[in-house]
Specification:
heterodimer, A: mainly alpha, 9 helices, globular, B: mainly alpha, elongated
Chain lengths: 171, 168
């Protein structure tokens, strides 16, 4: 449906793209960048890039993987720009929220996101997509263009590190 | 292995106590508006235009490379010319102008000496041939008249060698 709209050069494809990708891409970008604001800015750039490359997108063999590769490239471009400007901001922004409305829930969110932020980015993005977006290893491997074994091993190593980092929360 | 899976499930349940917020309606409005604006600004790509565009890009790249090569060679040449080094295609003006060329007196003298023998050779050879002819004539005449009256056994050929002979 989206591919057909892109091929027809129909602007309604923008809405379809939003419904299909926005939530997952925002989660993925937050996992890569550890910042909600940066993720939102990059998401906007990603949508503009997709629109500019819509003719290629309509012919792409793996549409989802192509969209995620655009998102990854834009995220790394932002990280590179930050590094060149030597503008490395401390990660003190809340990008995880807590489901239960109890007093002091932000402490848990802060602890979890601090632990996630200490993981290497490839492991973090796999864990975020699996845990928070309920993607299977097969889905993640298809979206990121990786083998299922690589995805599984990244998940396993990441979880091992998280277990050490969050041992006070594990009973 | 089962233990690891249980531990992972336990950890996942802790992680799921938090969640990632979904994109807000304001964000949707902002991004879709920007995307639609970009949509209107970007012309749909025509399939036949792609090879033409690639050809034009290749031609432009080739022109740029050739121009850069010419520019760099001209620049290198200009650097040499500015130092007033005589070029190889320039005609040699002759020995008279040697003092104006930046050579030392020793080199000038050497050039003169090296060039002189070619002029001397011809005249010296002529002289030598004349001497030989003269001696041969004398010898022939003396042989005809009185061969036993020659003064000693010494040859005229050995007695009078030319002073300066060079075959270089």
């Amino acid at each position: 449906m989206l591919r057909a709209a892109l091929a027809r050069n129909d602007p309604a494809a923008v809405e379809l793209m939003w419904d299909r990708y926005a939530g997952d891409l925002l989660a993925y970008l937050q996992a890569v960048l550890c910042s909600r604001h940066d993720a939102e800015d990059v998401l906007q750039t990603v949508f503009v890039r997709i629109v500019q490359k819509r003719h290629k997108l309509a012919k792409a063999r793996h549409l989802d993987a192509y969209v995620y590769s655009i998102a990854r490239n834009e995220a790394f471009r932002l990280i590179g720009r930050r590094k060149r400007k030597r503008k490395v901001e401390a990660v003190n922004e809340i990008w995880l929220t807590v489901t239960e409305e109890k007093p002091g829930p932000n402490e848990l969110a802060e602890e979890l996101q601090a632990a996630l932020a200490r993981l290497p980015q490839p492991q973090r993005e796999v864990i975020v997509m699996k845990v928070y977006k309920q993607k299977t290893f097969s889905d993640i491997s298809r979206l990121l263009g990786l083998s299922a074994n690589t995805v599984a091993s990244r998940y396993r190593y990441g979880m091992e590190k998280l277990r050490t980092l969050l041992e006070n929360l594990i009973l | 292995m089962k233990n690891k899976d249980t531990q992972n499930e336990q950890l996942e349940s802790i992680l799921r106590k938090a969640r990632l917020p979904e994109p807000s309606p304001e964000l949707k409005e902002r991004i879709t508006a920007e995307a639609k604006r970009a949509w209107n600004q970007t012309l749909p790509e025509l399939s036949w235009l792609v090879p033409f565009r690639r050809l034009a890009a290749s031609a432009a790249a080739a022109i740029l490379i050739i121009w850069l090569a010419n520019y760099s060679s001209e620049r290198a040449l200009a650097q040499w010319q500015s130092e007033k080094v005589p070029s190889t295609s320039e005609q040699f003006p002759g020995l008279e102008s040697l003092p104006e060329i930046p050579y030392g007196p020793f080199v000038r003298q050497l050039a003169t000496v090296n060039r002189q023998p070619s002029m001397i050779d011809a005249s010296a050879l002529n002289d030598h041939i004349e001497v030989l002819r003269h001696i041969l004539d004398e010898t022939q005449q003396s042989n005809i008249t009185k061969p036993s009256e020659l003064p000693g056994s010494r040859s005229h050929l050995i007695s009078n060698p030319p002073s300066v002979i060079s075959y270089s």
